[in-house]
Amino acid sequence: MPVWQQLFDGLKSERFMIVAVAEESRGAEHARQWIEQAKAEYWCLIDEDHRVADLYGMVNVPQAVWIDATGRIVRPPETAGSTDHFRLMDLATRTLAPEHQAARQAARSAYLDAVRDWVLTGQHALPNDAARDALPRITPVIALAQAHFRLGVWLRRHGNIGGGDAHLAEASRLHPDSWNIWRQAADLDEVGKASGEAFWQRVQTLGDKPYYPPPDLR
Amino acid sequence: MAIVLNDTGETTVAATDGLWLSADDALRATGWTLKPEGMCQADVCVPLHADAVRHGRLDVAAFWQLLGRPVVHDSANETWVLGAGADQRNAALAGLIAPDFTLPDLAGAPHTLSALRGNKVFLSTWASW
To answer: How high is the ipTM of this complex?
Structure first.
């Protein structure tokens, strides 16, 4: 959030807006402190049902979409500045070696620079064919998973915890690639669980596959 | 009574035997209108099986599945989700016009993405978890 405010600060004279959507089924109060600490002047929206992830086929946070002034998607969902360096962390001390910290910071800066270049010069915007090729493919099973997720969040919000959890678990079983679904369900079960032991075990099962696929910003 | 969650919100309907609804409730739940030729929306009509309509009521869950769209419900049949189909989501994305949405800010005030036309938009997700 603070880095997006820095990005926004430098682009205020442009016709540009940041829309930061909190995928937050526990509701606005769980997002409030981060938004207020960032002193965000851009749009900060609360998405309890993960509607944006559903509409755009997003599976993790942070993922971003770049939209031009005509409303056209010029970069489909992709990792927005985060990297897999966290997987190299020493879990006992929760620390990351300095060279990995530096590499992580460099990747984040490169991504933010790319956003800035796009706003100022149009660089990095994909032509239609390339944008279409990079779109996520929504399968009928993913659409079914989204329906289970919606119902699970709704049931929990209305006090049916057990019923809600069953639908959230089914959503995650059907759409295992969605970290959003799995981690949101874990967070609803217990705050902190989304980054607890079960999360690290799930990350390990990725093996050589990335948790945050790096964006192709040539 | 049952609650139907659809792609635009939620609505309360008088359901029997699962999700059998009157034509009026079916319209509110689905956006499709029951006509002699089937269920119709804009200039599209989908023919229904002969046993899908009884005494002016229709099996909306079966209709939704006929469209190839997901139907899920709670164990008490009190809350239903009529989800968007994969084909709908893919078609919207393939058009490359950013799918529109309206969401509240911290104070509850609604904001609609398409109101930002004329600006470049960096749409990013995040979470506290």
So the answer is: 0.97
